[in-house]
Write a structure and sequence with these properties.
The protein is of the alpha/beta class. It contains seven helices and twelve strands. Among the domains are: 74 residues, Beta-grasp domain (Ubiquitin-like (UB roll)); 84 residues, 3-Layer(aba) Sandwich (Rossmann fold).
């Protein structure tokens, strides 16, 4: 049996039991496993890792462990350009798009409210969600660590909080989305894009009291629901303000 020593840095320690946090971890193995497999066996999803250093050299997920290796594992860097070092993914996402697991319906709604493309359905099982993320190059949002260990998941994030507002803040911080917020661009129900529509085009669908008091409307290009600045609008603005009230 061979042994390697691992050390995890930053928020990767959130995935470790208290006795292993911020300290060296001895990992025993046979048959020279890939370093990715060892990292996940210790509890850290590969989607949370952005740099692996073995004996002072940066390596990829497929690097094979050897007896006596010292492995340093780092999370996504917020302010350090690591582009000259071995990259763990073929290429970054070309656009920001999410898929939220079955338990994150409230978060999905908040992200849509902020203008971010976010798929969610109570009908998705894990295999469907993983396939969808891979096919459409979406970032998986989940509270299930095991979901992020699927090989097909290349981009994902494990939410630390259970509160939807705090979760939305986490996502904004983690993916540096502060400058991309564009409220009221997405349908809160189906995630379709909203476009302006002339009142006369939907007049027959409007309740008389709404038609009499509102002239500006948005139409969902997917489900054809329409939106106006009714009594619900201040509540939605308050939700946005609550998310953004703390520095990101």
């Amino acid at each position: 049996m061979s042994t390697a020593v691992f050390r995890f840095y930053g928020e990767l320690n959130d995935f470790l039991p208290p006795k292993h946090r911020q300290r060296d971890i001895e990992y025993s193995f046979g048959n020279a496993p890939a370093v990715k497999d060892a990292i996940e066996a210790l509890g850290v999803p590969h989607t949370e890792v952005d740099l692996i250093v073995v004996n002072g050299q940066s390596v990829g997920f497929s690097h094979r462990l050897r007896d006596g290796d010292r492995v340093a594992v780092y999370p996504v860097f917020e302010s350090l350009d690591i582009s000259p070092i071995v990259q763990l993914r073929e290429k970054p996402l070309r656009q920001i798009a999410f898929v939220a697991d079955v338990h994150l319906g409230k978060l999905a709604r908040l992200l849509r409210l902020l203008g971010f493309d976010t798929l969610h359905s109570n009908e998705y099982d894990d295999s469907e969600l993983v396939a969808l993320a891979a096919r459409e190059r979406r970032i998986v949002l989940t509270r299930d660590r095991g979901l992020l260990k699927h090989n097909a998941v290349t981009h994902g994030y494990w939410l630390r909080s259970t509160d939807p507002v705090q979760q939305a803040r986490e996502v904004l911080r983690r993916f540096h989305l502060e400058t991309l917020i564009a409220p009221f661009q997405r349908c809160l129900v189906c995630n379709g894009q909203l476009v302006s529509v002339e009142k006369h085009q939907i007049l027959e669908r409007l309740p008389p009291n709404v038609a009499a008091t509102h002239d500006e409307y948005l139409l969902c290009t997917s489900c054809h629901r329409f939106y106006w600045r009714g009594t619900h609008y201040p509540r939605l603005e308050a939700q946005i303000a609550k998310i953004l009230q703390e520095p990101l």
